[in-house]
Amino acid sequence: MLNADGSKRRWTMEDAKQMFDKCGAKKPDNATWGDVQYLFAIFYSDYFPKVLDCDQKIVKAVLAYLEDPDAPEGAAFVRYLAVRCFVGDTIKWSEMI
C-alpha cells in the first residue's frame, strides 16, 4: 500500500497483534484480527505521520472505528469488500483460508 508520505508498508496480522500488545490494547470481541489489520493499513497509509503520528494514536483510531456504536458489526470487512469491488478486484476466496 502506498502511504501518504510516499513510503510503502504492508501491515501483517502479526504486526497488528504486536502493536495492540505493545500499546496495551484489547481487540473488541465483535471484531476480527483481519478487521484490525485492514484498519491499521488504512490509518497508517492515509494518516501517518500528519494526523496519527505515533503507534498509540493509530491503535486508538482503530479501536474508535471498531467500537463505533453507529456502525454495524463487521463494518470494517464490509468496507474492505466495497473497496475491492469498486476498484474491480476479484476476490479469490479460496486463497483467503
TrEMBL record:
<dbReference type="InterPro" id="IPR057163">
    <property type="entry name" value="DUF7841"/>
</dbReference>
<protein>
    <recommendedName>
        <fullName>DUF7841 domain-containing protein</fullName>
    </recommendedName>
</protein>
<feature type="domain" description="DUF7841">
    <location>
        <begin position="1"/>
        <end position="95"/>
    </location>
</feature>
<dbReference type="Pfam" id="PF25223">
    <property type="entry name" value="DUF7841"/>
</dbReference>
